[in-house]
């Protein structure tokens, strides 16, 4: 096998394992999933998995990195298109359509892991820095008259809102429409211009 073919095969195999790990982690969490579970899910032997990921910790970290990068790309694509909070708050809206429910579950698991593991916190902080910089560029183009502080406020608010909705994925789905309308009005005047 040539080097490019070998690299492609390596990347495909790693993605297969990460995909299987995501399925397992979304059902049982990072700490409730064994390598045997991932082996069964992927159809690969444990020895084959260890050839690509030398430890479960490394596999967890690579899975978290995959989720965090996807989350950043999703938000960088979707947040600049929103002008109201309604689509963001409604977990069933078109805003969330391209973000699978399984990945929302994994976000919670990922944030939980970050509370225990400094390397995960650093990884997530890096992805957030990239996201904030990208959103700031997009918002500066969209609203050239907005001050840097206004853009920063908008970005931070939207990120808190999105994180809250993602964390609420298992909870109450009903939203008070009057309150939502009031919040939209405030945001339109102060943050979303």
UniProtKB/TrEMBL annotation:
Highest taxon of the lineage: Bacteria
Residues covered by the HTH tetR-type domain: 11-71
Pfam families: TetR_N (PF00440)
GO MF annotation terms: DNA binding
Residue spans binding DNA: 34-53
Keyword Phosphoprotein in annotation: no
InterPro entries the UniProt entry points to: DNA-bd_HTH_TetR-type_CS (IPR023772), Homeodomain-like_sf (IPR009057), HTH-type_TetR-like_transc_reg (IPR050109), HTH_TetR (IPR001647)
Keywords of this entry: DNA-binding
Protein name: Bilin biosynthesis protein CpeZ
Organism: Pantoea wallisii
Origin organism lineage: Bacteria, Pseudomonadati, Pseudomonadota, Gammaproteobacteria, Enterobacterales
